[in-house]
Write a structure and sequence with these properties.
The structure is a single chain. The chain has one helix at about 1-20; strands at about 30-35, 35-45, 50-55, 60, 65-75, 75-85, 90, 100-110, 115-125. With about 140 residues, it is mainly beta. The longest helix is centred in the first third of the chain and has 17 residues, at about 1-20. It is globular and about 35 Å long.
């Protein structure tokens, strides 16, 4: 009987851990883990991208200490995208190239002397059937 209880306890624990979801971004975008903070990559309806920054408690913080650039590796070729502060966000100066299913290499630098870090995002704006988010921000396990 003790073995059965132990086995059931282990099975329930494994199921509970498997049910843990990826944290949802406040604006519905793709969350990027920065050392103790987070950045949210969000595609606007006009295909420009905005980036919001959050502290450890997921409270939005000003983007002043960050510099961001992106390279869209679209089928028509690579396009460098610059970002500028727009309110409490960083926004791309131009829309991202047409199409979907290409890689965006996002480079984020913290502070003027910080080492830049690269993050790869699959740029796909199609809507996921399971979670109803854009595929680039999908939190499903598929």
């Amino acid at each position: 009987m003790k073995k059965l209880i132990l086995i059931l306890t282990c099975a329930l624990t494994i199921c509970a851990l498997a049910e843990e979801k990826t944290p949802t971004a406040p604006r519905g975008g793709h969350l990027i883990n920065l050392d103790g903070q987070k950045a949210e990559f969000f595609v606007e309806p006009d295909r420009t991208v905005t980036i919001a920054f959050y502290d450890a408690a997921m409270k939005q913080i000003p983007p002043a200490e960050y510099a961001v650039t992106a390279t869209a590796e679209a089928p028509g070729g690579k396009t460098k995208m610059d970002f500028a502060q727009k309110g409490n966000l960083l926004a791309s100066a131009a829309p991202f190239p047409a199409g979907d299913n290409y890689t965006v290499v996002l480079q984020i630098r913290s502070g003027t002397n910080g080492k830049p870090k690269n993050y790869r995002i699959n740029f796909n704006t199609a809507v996921c059937a399971e979670c109803s988010k854009a595929e680039y921000a999908c939190t499903c396990a598929h």
